[in-house]
Automatic annotation (TrEMBL):
Catalytic activity from the UniProt record: [protein]-peptidylproline (omega=180) = [protein]-peptidylproline (omega=0)
Stated name of the protein: Trigger factor
Similarity annotation: Belongs to the FKBP-type PPIase family. Tig subfamily.
Pfam families, per the entry: FKBP_C, Trigger_C, Trigger_N
Record remark on domains: Consists of 3 domains; the N-terminus binds the ribosome, the middle domain has PPIase activity, while the C-terminus has intrinsic chaperone activity on its own.
Gene: tig
Source organism (scientific name): Ancylobacter koreensis
Subcellular location: Cytoplasm
PPIase FKBP-type domain: residues covered: 169-229
Signal peptide per UniProt: none
Entry EC no(s): 5.2.1.8
Isomerase keyword on record: yes
Length: 450
């Protein structure tokens, strides 16, 4: 085998490989010798078929198989000899001229092909002990607990049917049909929808116009969708709703104490309070980790600046861009609505794509250098957790992941990332900074970029 380097530019490599016809023929003959004891042909005893006869019958197909194997072996040899780590599978370009191909298949000519490689950069890891991070922390306050308990109680408040006009605080079950300029619109209709008047659950002004409505009464409600409404095709538009009250209910007293807790399946009000406190703490800790993780990734990005494989960056960009443009199309928004241009947006998302690829390579390198691994048990637990998210379909979800290696890898990857993050946070200097709830849950520009 003769290998000639044609290109060494950045992370791209290209080689011309020549596999001599004699070498391919020798491998084909060896393969035919293996087949001699296995092939059954009329007129020949088992194991007595002449190799020359096999070559006449199967020579071309065997040589094609040998060529495929030889190409793969040549590619692997190039990678091994040069100590490359590949970003993508090699791109092989075989001869396209039919006459030239036939000469190779017939063993009359050497096989010459090119192989293009895109390699991963060599990453020099930074000093993780030099990283200093502020971690926002927030203790659970009694006020938060009481507010949450009140919301739980409100959501479980009993209602009783009432006669007469609906008042603020009453729950009205309504049917409605909405229209804009006389035309019904998607998502503008509903049947038997419970609505607590004064809850501000619907468009501003909608609930106020139902004060005083009676059972079986129909009213026309005129409202205007907010300018920042999430469905862009409705934002800022005036709409008319024909609303019929199916039933009116008045609120009963809120459940309290142990009786309230037992209605929710808990032993006592104290147990309910502790569960609420634990859940709030879990939310705060999760948000705190998200913040410190983003700051850690920023620090890693600052420590490791290197060229990323173009194909990986392009794949990441394509995924981001398709998601962004699909969402904008669904919302009927343009780049002008976002205060930018398509060219500027492409440049921004290209930077984000390269950052993601770079950080992914850094995290992978850290994990490899420090023998950080994801166990089968951890993946199994992730599959079980995923299956629980689909009640009644647990077995189908389990089978899907069991039979789909790529889907299983999608569960393994975030587990690996979190383990690497834990490893780095142990090495970094992490300073816990008490913050307010508003500060903890505020989304700053750095968070958006991350």
């Amino acid at each position: 085998m003769q290998v000639t380097e044609l290109l060494a530019e950045g992370l791209k490599r290209e080689y011309r490989v020549v596999l001599p016809a004699a070498e391919l023929d020798a491998k084909a003959n060896a393969r035919l010798n293996e087949l001699k004891d296995k092939v059954r042909l009329n007129g020949f005893r088992p194991g007595k078929v002449p190799v020359a006869h096999l070559k006449r019958m199967y020579g071309k197909s065997v040589l094609a198989e040998v060529i495929d194997q030889a190409v793969n072996e040549a590619n692997n040899q190039i990678v091994e000899d040069n100590g490359f780590k590949l970003a993508l599978q090699p791109k092989v370009e075989l001869p396209q001229d039919e006459a030239a191909v036939n000469e190779v298949i017939e063993g009359k000519a050497d096989l010459t092909f090119t192989v293009g490689l895109e390699v991963l950069p060599k990453i020099e890891l930074g000093d993780f002990k030099s990283i200093a991070l502020d971690k926002p922390v927030l203790a659970v306050s009694d006020e938060e607990i009481e507010d949450t308990l009140t919301r739980i109680a409100e959501s479980n408040r009993p209602y009783a049917a009432k006669q007469g006009e609906a008042e603020k605080g009453d729950r009205v079950h309504i049917n409605f049909v909405g229209s804009i300029d006389g035309e019904k619109f998607e998502g503008g209709s509903g049947e038997d929808i419970p609505l607590v008047l004064g809850s501000n659950s619907f468009i501003p002004g909608f609930e106020d116009q139902l004060i005083g409505i009676k059972e079986d009464e129909t009213r026309t409600v005129e409202v205007t969708f907010p300018a920042e409404y999430q469905a862009a095709h409705l934002a800022g538009k005036a709409a008319s709703f024909e609303v019929t009250a199916r039933m009116i209910e008045s609120p009963a007293e809120l459940p309290q104490g142990d009786e309230f807790a037992k209605a929710l399946g808990l032993e006592s009000y104290d147990a309910l309070r502790e569960q609420v406190k634990s859940r709030i703490a879990q939310e705060h800790n999760g948000q705190s980790r998200n913040k410190v993780k983003r700051r850690l990734l920023d620090a890693l990005d600052g420590l490791h600046q290197f060229e990323v494989p173009p194909s990986l960056a392009q794949q990441e960009f394509d995924g981001i861009w398709n998601s962004v443009t699909s969402e904008m199309e669904a919302q009927k928004r343009t780049f002008a609505d976002e205060g930018t241009t398509e060219e500027e947006a492409r440049a921004d998302y290209d930077k984000i794509a390269k950052r993601r690829v770079r950080l992914g390579l850094v995290l992978a390198e850290i994990g490899e250098k420090n023998n950080i691994q994801v166990t089968d048990d951890e993946v199994t637990r992730a599959v079980v957790e995923r299956a629980r998210q689909f009640p009644g379909q647990e077995q189908q979800v389990w089978e899907f992941y069991r039979q789909n290696a790529q889907a299983l890898a999608s569960l393994r990857a975030p587990i690996f990332e979190e383990k690497v993050v834990d490893f780095l946070l142990e090495l970094a200097k992490v300073n816990e900074v008490p913050v307010t709830r508003e500060e903890l849950y505020a989304e700053d520009e750095a968070d958006k970029a991350a």
